[in-house]
Write a structure and sequence with these properties.
Number of domains: 2
Low-confidence stretches: none
CATH class of the largest domain: Alpha Beta
Strand order of the largest sheet: 1-12-14-13
Helix content: 25-40%
Largest sheet: 4 strands, mixed
Radius of gyration: 21 Å
Mean pLDDT: 97
CATH superfamily of the largest domain: Enolpyruvate transferase domain
Number of strands: 21
Strand content: 15-25%
Shape: globular
CATH topology of the largest domain: UDP-n-acetylglucosamine1-carboxyvinyl-transferase, Chain
CATH architecture of the largest domain: Alpha-beta prism
Length: 398
């Protein structure tokens, strides 16, 4: 059996670092955020927070959507002018309706897509309306910012609330840093005039989003995989991988933080991806390793990620021999239990690169991955670990 120690959660680290910085600014209390490994996205947030604390307006957010969308409202709440320097596909990724809500509440922003992207003015409290089927990062960004305004505010979530687990993570982290958020029927009520109160130490928990790739590998390789360091009580939505693996037919076991997945006969299933969009690439690989039809629904928001992930998943797996159909809001995969192999373009997207690597476990021929350096965004050591545990034998990178 292959054993892997999972890296700290990027999502948890972003939230904790922002809360720690706001604690130091609003109450003078410092916090040591324990995050044993880093990535380009985490380093982007660190760089922006360092600029904030030294009074520099330049925010080098790289390709990190979380960094940009979380810190835009924070800078506005602090009344600071900031210049964000997004890279890669991030300048083209949408900011509406957060953009319009910030303008409606006292901010001035440069046109969307410009670099640098500038925000200035003082954010004003009030009612903020965000559709529930766009990025949950807009809601999280406002939740970080609104408590430090003088008066109360409200976030109204309109329509179906997708990716809610990520917002639940934000609320929990805020509570850990002394901020009170009240959940109401149509969204959140945020009392104003609050100060962040940091604990002395905050331990970032293990990363379920990246852990999914290893757990799925356990269902696809002889002997299985054991992943250490994942909290089964976590609020991270991607822990849903465990019941999904069971539905596919894999054998799963949990023992004191060690999660083991063993291969078995896998069969296609129907998946509602509304709350777990980041899992779609690896779920598509599991569907290829299963027999029968798998349908992935409610995944349209994947088109505005680091790549158009419905298109990139479909193209990469099709090139490797999958029978896959792409629809506006999802995918249909007719699994046979194996793939042929071949070339896989990483699309500049870390999750597509990792998807192709795990897909190699069920390929008859080698998988040649181009653009594999994209994993540095979230998991710099991914390929080294893959090789260390003997799962990279069917991969070439160029």
């Amino acid at each position: 059996m292959k054993t892997i120690q999972i890296l700290p959660s990027k999502s948890d680290a972003h939230r904790a670092m922002i809360c720690a910085a706001l604690s130091e600014l609003t109450s003078g209390k410092t916090c040591q955020v324990m995050c044993e490994t880093s990535s380009q996205d985490i380093e982007a947030t660190e760089a922006c927070l360092a600029a904030l604390q030294t009074g520099r307006p330049q925010m080098c957010c790289g390709e990190s959507g979380s960094t940009l969308r979380f810190l835009l409202p924070v800078m506005a709440a602090l009344g600071h002018r900031a210049e964000f320097y997004p890279e890669g596909r991030l300048p083209q990724r949408p900011l509406s309706p957060l953009y319009e809500e910030l303008e409606r509440h006292g901010c001035r922003l440069s046109p969307q897509g410009t670099v640098p992207f500038t925000i200035e003015g003082q954010l004003e409290p009030g009612i903020f309306r965000i559709p529930g089927d766009v990025s949950s990062q807009y809601i999280s960004g406002l939740l970080f910012a609104l408590p430090i305004l003088e008066s109360d505010s409200k976030i109204v979530v309109e329509g179906e609330f997708q990716s809610r687990p990520y917002v639940n993570m934000t609320v929990q982290t805020l509570e850990d840093f002394g901020i009170s958020i009240k959940t109401i029927d149509d969204g959140f009520f945020i009392p104003g005039g609050q100060r962040y109160q940091a604990p002395p130490v905050y331990q970032v928990e293990g990363d379920w989003s990246n852990g999914c790739f290893w757990l799925a590998a356990g269902a696809l390789t002889p002997g299985g995989v054991c992943v250490k360091g994942l909290n089964v009580k976590s609020l991270q939505g991607d822990k849903e991988i465990l019941p999904l693996l069971s539905r596919f037919g894999a054998k799963t076991a949990v023992c004191e933080g060690d999660i083991t997945v063993m291969p078995s006969s896998l069969y296609g299933i129907d998946i509602n991806a509304a709350q777990i969009p980041d899992m779609v690439p690896i779920l598509a690989v599991l569907a290829c390793g299963a027999k029968g039809k798998t349908t992935i629904r409610n995944a349209g928001r994947l088109r505005i990620k680091e790549s158009d992930r419905l298109a990139s998943v479909s193209q990469v797996l099709s090139n490797l021999g999958a029978s896959i159909k792409e629809f506006p809001e999802g995918l249909e995969i007719q699994g046979t239990g194996s793939l042929a192999g071949g070339r896989a373009d990483g699309w500049g997207d870390h999750r597509i690169v990792m998807m192709a690597a795990i897909a190699s476990l069920i390929c008859d021929e080698k998988v040649i991955i181009t653009g594999s350096q994209a994993v540095k965004k979230s998991y710099p050591d991914f390929f080294q670990i893959l090789e260390d545990v003997g799962l990279g034998n069917n991969i070439e990178r160029n």
